[in-house]
Design goal:
24% of the residues lie in helices and 35% in strands. By secondary structure, the chain is of the alpha+beta class. It has a 7-stranded antiparallel β-sheet with strand order 5-4-1-2-3-7-6. Strands 8-9-10-13-12-11 form a 6-stranded antiparallel beta barrel. Strands 15, 16, 17, 18, 19 and 20 form a 6-stranded antiparallel β-sheet that branches.
Length: 450
């Protein structure tokens, strides 16, 4: 045999041994892996939550707002005393929140506390694009705001559902930006409806959910299983509480959003009564057949209630056939109506149910710019105007008390809030104001020095 042939045989032999060794190792590795797990080849089925998220997520935005806030004056004065005017009493703060696009014109719904007093608003879309946001209108009493972005006609939008149709136990999903973690999805159920949680908004009527809602979720949508917005995520319970979040019902928000877009503000309706909720104690004392509703304690002269023949002692049971559970329910139904709207009240009078048609007027219980300088909340009264609230920083605290009736300023008769505003403007440079008031049935003349 030739030498070259022997070399070829040796080479082929070595190659055969190497290939055999490799195949043996591969077989051994497969056998080894198979001892620990089995891989599935079954096609993965996604949950319906994913389909809802996929459809709704593009319309959810991240909102970053820069605000200028005032430092405590006493602290600033202390710094100025020691260091001179090197410190500014103003500080910039950054707030983070969420929102959702409701139409192709770029209108975005969010919470008032996310954007109120903001100087700069940056809206980040789902594709990462950042746009400037402009405030269209805000409503602190419901904690709802509308902002707007410009320049994009192909914006994704989200559909609004009907919050009245949800039931306790229904699945809900929250999409937002908790702690800056963009477009986070959390799920839960409707834990309760109509929660009257004071201190969050004036017209409390919250949906409670155990879907996780954290800082940064504010203003984002709470969705039903169809991917429709049924609430605006707003707050969570503090302290050691877990999985207790609150959302503003979208049906309530629709009324506010419509006004904010159309005129940049919310005009509230006014009935013109002072009332008290009917509880078990009141029911027993008055020997009533009902343990709900509002008993009318006072009717403002010339008010819609007065013109509509509502009387002291009447018990309001329903507004437009909706049950009035208590004073909060009545305030919400009236306050969320527009001035000029007609409402039908079902009233219990002398143990008989009657119906009254009343046309609501524009609310005159408000804090105007001039009143805000004085820190007073006033409302028209049958004679003069009534002090409803005195803010902590009011210069008139110590002179006036809540419940006082202001009858005159510098001997000029005050018949309504408008008169008060005009007289305050007239005497804005006076060093002394003389207020004629009525307190506990007695008239007094109070001298207020500036």
């Amino acid at each position: 045999m030739k030498k070259s042939s022997k070399i070829r045989i040796v080479i082929f032999g070595v190659l055969a041994i190497m290939v055999g060794f490799f195949l043996a190792q591969l077989s051994e590795d497969l056998t080894y892996a198979g001892q620990y797990f089995t891989e599935s080849d079954k096609e993965l089925e996604h949950s319906k939550f994913y389909n809802v998220y996929k459809e709704a997520m593009p319309a959810v935005v991240n909102i970053s707002a820069e605000k200028v806030v005032q430092m405590d004056n006493s602290m600033y004065d202390m710094f100025e005393e020691f260091f001179g005017k090197r410190f500014s009493p103003e500080r910039k703060m950054q707030s983070m929140g969420s929102g959702f696009i409701i139409n192709k014109k770029g209108y975005i719904v969010t919470n008032n506390h996310v954007v109120s007093q903001a100087e700069d608003i940056v809206v980040k879309l789902s594709d990462g694009k950042e746009m400037e946001g402009k405030i269209v209108g805000t409503d602190p009493e419901t904690d709802i705001a509308v902002i707007k972005i410009e320049g994009d006609e192909n914006l994704p939008i989200i559909k609004l559902g009907n919050s009245d149709k949800i039931k306790i136990g229904d699945w809900v999903l929250a999409i937002g930006n908790p702690f800056g973690l963009e477009r986070t999805l959390t799920k839960g159920i409707v834990s309760a409806k109509g929660r009257d949680i004071q201190g969050i908004t004036k017209f409390a009527n919250f949906i409670q959910t155990d879907a996780a809602i954290n800082r940064g979720n504010s203003g984002g949508p709470l969705l039903n299983i169809n991917g429709e917005v049924i609430g605006i995520n707003t707050a969570k319970a503090g302290g050691t509480a877990q999985n207790i979040g609150f959302a503003i019902p979208i049906n309530m928000a629709k009324k506010v959003v419509t006004q904010l877009i159309s005129k940049g503000k919310v005009d509230r309706a006014y009935l013109g009564i002072m009332g008290q909720s009917i509880d078990n104690q009141t029911q027993e004392a008055l020997d009533l057949d009902v343990n709900y509703g509002v008993i009318v304690r006072e009717v403002d002269k010339g008010s819609p209630a007065d013109k509509g023949n509502l009387k002291v002692g009447d018990i309001i049971l329903r507004v437009n056939n909706k049950k009035v559970e208590n004073m909060n329910t009545l305030a919400r139904e009236i306050g969320l109506s527009e001035p000029g709207a007609k409402v039908e009240l079902t009233v219990l009078r002398d143990d008989k149910k009657i119906k009254l048609d009343i046309t609501l007027a524009k609310s005159d219980s408000f804090v105007s710019k001039k009143q805000n300088d004085l820190g007073l909340e006033l409302k028209n009264h049958k004679i003069g105007i009534k002090v409803v609230k005195i803010l902590r920083n009011s210069p008139l605290r110590g002179y006036l008390e809540e419940g006082d009736i202001i009858l005159a300023i510098n001997r000029i008769k005050v018949e309504n809030v408008e008169d008060f505003n005009k007289l305050i403007e007239k005497y804005k440079d006076s060093r002394v104001l003389y207020l004629t008031i009525e307190r506990d049935g007695r008239r007094k003349l109070i001298a207020i020095t500036r």
